[in-house]
Amino acid sequence: MTIDEKIKELEEKLEEIKKENEKLKTGRYTKDKRWRALFNEKYYYLNDCGGIEIFLESSTLADKYRYEIGNYFKTREEAEKHSQNRLTYQQLKDIALRLNKGQEFDWKNVEQGKYYIFYDSVVKKFESGVCGTYRNLTEIYCLDENFLNVALEEIGEEKLKQLLEWGI
Q1: For the chain, which residues make up each domain, given as ranges?
Q2: How many C-beta neighbours within 10 Å does residue 73 have?
Q3: What percent of the chain is helix, strand and coil (3-state, nearest 5)?
Q4: Mean pLDDT by 10 residues, the chain (168 residues)
Q5: Among candidate residues 77, 72, 51, the one with its CA nearest the CA of residue 60
Q6: Rounded CA gap, 106 and 84, in Å?
Q7: pTM here?
């Protein structure tokens, strides 16, 4: 075998290895599992001041913790969206707290209205619901029936839609 033939053979093998590598990379995460960087692959996260940082996965406790709490993103855009949604979620909680004026929820009292915001996909708009004694894991409740109007005015419909898509 000549040197040129050997080079050609190795180049073909290299091309096959690259294709196999790409298949493994794209197929390693399915719809039933979140993305996680490979060792020495970059990921993004929010630091304690809300800034976006790039880090290389190195299987440290910090990497593991960021992944477990959902502060671990494949792209800068995902991290930015997460940051914005966390701010919007906190704004919504703060609005409810302010409107409640220190009044406590009585989850055994069916007469006390606990208002929450939901999106009606048929009419394509936000609505306000009220419940008495049941609670949902991810809802933010407020004792003021104007909760939705205040949230729309202070936060805006687009940010609320983005928060909804994020999945609180």
Answers
A1: 76-168
A2: 21
A3: 45, 15, 40
A4: 88 84 61 89 96 96 97 97 95 97 95 94 94 88 97 96 83
A5: 72
A6: 32
A7: 0.76
